[in-house]
Every structure is written in structure tokens, then in C-alpha cells.
Amino acid sequence: MSRTAPALDVDAILDDPNTRIIVCCGSGGVGKTTTAAALGLRAAERGRSVVVLTVDPAKRLAQAMGLTELDNTPRRVAGVGDAESPDGGELHAMMLDMKRTFDEIIEAHADPDRAQQILTNPFYESLSSSFSGTQEYMAMEKLGQLRRSNDWDLIVVDTPPSRSALDFLDAPERLGRFLDGRLIRFLTAPAKAGGRSAFRLLNAGFGMVAGILTKVIGAQVLRDIQMFVSALDAVFGGFRQRAEQTYRLLQAPGTAFLVVAAPERDAMREASYFVERLADERMPLAGLVVNRVHTSPAPELSAARSLAAAEDLESRGEHDLTAAVLRLHAGRMQLGARERRQRDHFTSAHPTVPIAQVPAMPEDVHDLAGLRQIGQLLAS
After folding, report:
1. Which H or E run includes 356?
2. 21 Cβ partners below 8 Å, 6+ apart?
3. 104: exposed, middle or buried (C-beta count within 10 Å: 0-12, 13-18, 19+)?
4. Model confidence pLDDT, tens digit, residues 316-346
5. Residues 297-324: what's their mean pLDDT?
6. 179 or 78, which is more confident?
7. C-alpha 288 chain-centroid distance
8. Nearest C-alpha neighbor of 24 from the set 260, 250, 301, 373
9. What three-state secondary structure class fits 79?
10. 3-class DSSP assignment, residue 296
């Protein structure tokens, strides 16, 4: 017997003017990007001014919204809030460019000379585009920028796939550990001491370590890192402060986290992880969205009866097409039963988490009409 979970009232969340941020998180391949876009579209067409920020590098969001490209600048989605939907709000969409976001932060919070010193540093080029955790930290920064601008009354965030989707919660602490670590303090010692005498002091105290580092990473790379960290040190306090402000913003009542999953064992396990992690971080969980749920238009015909009827027809050599349809129906009923068991396992562990279910669609969503349909299914 299936356990009954509370129903997730999506429209109540979207219509609440106090809801300013919705964060969609979940493992990869569960329809998270589509869910975020559908929520943004539905909110806009119910009168809200919305921006959807995707951190997923896939282009599905741009294609579904009819945009030729997504980049670090919010772009207006045509057909929402104009003559085609006069009663709606506005919908904008953007995709995080972590390198450009990092550049913007440096340019905004450092004097021109120091900013140029950082931006042209070879180590910065590597850090800003590929360093572990940079994407999550920049997602935190961009979310904070959008919220501080107050240009939209609702921000919908589509996070990266897999468990790293919640790594942006750790971004301030992780960046702090990196820049406050022993190696970084060691590398900044010459610049903080000043001039050639500093290098003599460094060699006197840490000659062996410096020699090893030079052999491992090269003298030029070591100098690049030293210069970068020294220049960044002046603006790092602002980095940490803004990230901590955004973290507190995520904990505030105006934020709603939606965990997105497919009705499969691994995806539902990940959903449980997300729910537990959000509870540990005291983040406001709104509920779970289960995508691609398989149902049947004839639920009263059980899989067992359908298979028995198919076998009877096949044994008599009659109605081969009918027998094939009966077997397809039986397979779908069995799949639906497996999916219900997975949802039951989740509900047993998290009985108070509201759930919304979206039936499996016959084809991928590729336009606003498809997103609109997903939004309606979410709300139903």
C-alpha cells in the first residue's frame, strides 16, 4: 500500500510575494533545468517579475525559451509579459559564466591598478576558470548580485547536477580555507614583508620549502601565485562577507528549496541526501518534485490480468496486436509499481516533505508551450 505524502502547493509558493528565491537542486538527468524554467515561466505568467539563473552548462534552457544564447547577462524571454500574454509579468534567463563573474567582482572591488594586476595574472586565469569550487562560489556571488539589484521579485536558481549542487553552501568556508591556508600564507610572506629583503627573509626561514616548491611547480608559477594572492588579499574580505550574506539569505524565510528527482532508486537516494543536508544547514525546504512518473490510462486493469489475457490470446493464435498492447500495458503497470515503491521509501524516511509529481512526457520539452504544460502539471 502506497504511503501518502503531503501535496506540494507550487502555486502557493509562486504567488507568495514573500518568496524571492527558489533553488532547484538534485542529481543530474532528472529534469531539474526544465523544472526551473517551467517554474519561472509559470510565475511570470501569474504576474511576477522573474529571472532564471542556470549553472548547468547544457543549452536546453535557452532552446526551450526561444533564446539563441544564454550568457552572464539576463535576457528577456519574448512571449511573456508582452502582447501575447498581457496579464503576465516578465521572464528573464541567464547562464552563469564563472570566469566573467569573477572578473566583475575584481573590477568592482579593487582599484584599477590592482584589478589589472589580478586579471592579467596567469594563475588567476587558471583559478577563475577551472579551480575546484570556483563555480559554486561564483553561483553564490551571482545570486547575491541579482538579489541586491532588486530588479526582479523572484529569482529561480538551477544548480549544477549531482551532490555538488549543494557545494555552493560551503563556498565561503572553502574559499576561506584556501586563502587562509598555510601554503597561501607562506606564498604571501615575501610580498607582505616587502621587496628583496623579503625574499632573503623567506629564503632564510623557508629556503628548503621554497626550493621544493620551485622544483615542483616552477619558479615562474610560484611568482605568479605569490603576486596573485598578494593582490587578491586586499579584496578577499569583501568576497567572504558577500558570500556569508548570501548564505544567510538562503536560510531566510523568503527562500524555498525544491529538490528534484526521478522515481528511480539512485535519484531518490540523492533526493534523501539533499533533504537531510538542507535540514542540517537549516535551509527552508519547500518540497520534492518527482519528474517522469509513469502512469496508465487504464489503471483498473492490473499487470497480472493484462498478462493473463495476452497469454490466452497468444495460445489461441488470435489478435496478436491486442496481445502486444496488453503486454505493453502490463510492463507500464509494473514500472509504475516500482516507481511507487521508490516514492514510498522516500516518504517513509521523510513523511512531512510535500511532493509534486509530473507524469512522463512523450517527448522532450523544447519550447514555451512545453514549459507551460510542465508548469501546469507541477501545479496540479
Report:
1. strand 355-359
2. 143, 147, 154, 155, 156, 157, 249, 250, 254, 255, 256
3. middle
4. 888 889 999 999 999 999 999 999 999 999 9
5. 89
6. 78
7. 15
8. 260
9. coil
10. coil
